[in-house]
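Quick one: structure tokens for this chain, please?
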Amino acid sequence: MNHIQKIFRDHGDTYLARFGAKMPEMHKKVIHAICDCRSGECGHHVFACTDCGKTHVANSSCGNRHCPVCQNDKASRWIYKQQLRLLPCTYFMATFTIPEELRAVARSNQSVVYKAMFESAAESLRTLEADKRFVGCNVAGFFGVLHTWGRQLQYHPHLHFVIPGGGLSKNRSQWINANGNFLVHVRALSKMYRGKLQKALTKSGLLDQIPAGVWSRDWVVHCKAVGDGRHTMKYLGAYVFRVAISAARIVDYDGNSVRIKYQKVGSSKWRFITLDAFEFMRRFLQPVLP
């Protein structure tokens, strides 16, 4: 049993009793799944030797995508499949964030805001890639991955898009390359993404919940060349099939508090933070998808 499962088994019932009435149903399901995983509550597998007939019974896993022990094999298969689809060209990775003032609205309206983020980012990429000043292709291909946590388990929804450096002409008969290690202007991408997301959230009736100043300042959007894309697939695979924190980052658990280690962006130095068990569980559950 790893530290994460032990924390949930030790405190899951008390956590549900205290906060269950206000919790999303998916959070409750994740707590039960982690607690029951490989305990016998999820059933059993029976293995038998074809030579001697000896049998072995193993407790089944829960299979929940947020369970820390159930996702490693899925990640490996996903990475392998995506690498087979890579084109022989330079790839780019674009990252789209939202300001901190928007996060509370996103957390309370996850389905609506996540959908709006994806659509706004995709439309912005398609529009700018079609511009002859950049790529000039009418058919652009890419995919995006949602990442909802930071290195200290804080709620931080953002998107990573993997983009081949080029696209197809209008009649799809010609491949048009991007200009070396340049895809589109990041400033233009940021402004367009911000404007489209504002329009989408206005349409959804959420604009009144967001401070007006958010729409008049620069948003953090990055876009950089990432070579042939293989390393990027491995990087993203960890987020597609990984929970918010691995058991290896939990330094100590004494039954009441959890000490975790993390690295700041751009630093290899390990830093440490101590959370009580309930706060650790709250942060762990925030990225659970609706």
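The longest strand covers residues 155-164.
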